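Q: I'm writing up a methods section and want to include an example of the input and output format. Could you take the sequence below and give the corresponding predicted structure tokens, formatted cleanly so I can copy it straight into the document?
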Amino acid sequence: MITTTIDGVQFKVTRLKTRGPRKGETLSRNSQHGAGAAFGSIRDSDLSAGGASHAVGAGKGMTITRVTGMGKVMVADLEAVMTRARDQHRADRRAAARDRVGGAV
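A: Here is the clean output for your methods example:
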């Protein structure tokens, strides 16, 4: 408590304690989120026994999601796959147009 006088008037000023950070307001790491490892990094201990590929998610901490869909492995000849897909999409659009018109296209 500080007592001061200004123009003959006495004031008492009480300085409050500085509030500390609440939970989650600091940038320190803890054991729950990797204990000093960068967010999103993969260590040897994070790999599964099954040998599946891993993708690091964008979640808080270590979100490891197995990649098991169509994009798991890059195709050997991407140009051929794109050509086949383009031709299939074109055929599908023509078939849908025939169905709408009644088979006259």
